[in-house]
Amino acid sequence: MAAKSEPKVNVVLQFDGKSVDVADVSKAAKEDWKAEHDGTVSQLHLYLKSEESKAYYVINGKDAGAVDM
């Protein structure tokens, strides 16, 4: 029997009349990090603050930054 795979999950955050695809925010955070760093993103933590329309991130447990949502 074939191994059971996890379904693809798409998360959309809705606030203040906006819809934000979390995959797009994740991509923006990684691109922001790569503009300043060399290497591979092995871990990404996103903290979404709707009241600021910002996504704060921590990459590889040590580098932090923020991008607009």
Summarize the structure.
Helix content is 22%, strand content 38%.
Question: What does this protein look like?
Answer:
The chain is α+β, with helices and mostly antiparallel strands. It has one domain (14-68). It has one helix at 22-36, and strands at 12-15, 18-21, 44-49, 54-59, 63-68. The radius of gyration is 14 Å and the shape is flat. The model has no long low-confidence stretch (mean pLDDT 94).
Write the layout of secondary structure elements.
Blueprint: E1 12-15, E2 18-21, H1 22-36, E3 44-49, E4 54-59, E5 63-68
Antiparallel strand pairs: 1-2, 3-4, 4-5
Given helix and strand content, the structural type is: alpha+beta
Order of strands, widest sheet: 3-4-5
| Inertia-based shape | flat
End-to-end separation: 42 Å
Beta-strand percentage range: 35-45%
Which terms would index this structure?
single chain, 69 residues, alpha+beta, two-stranded antiparallel sheet, 5 strands
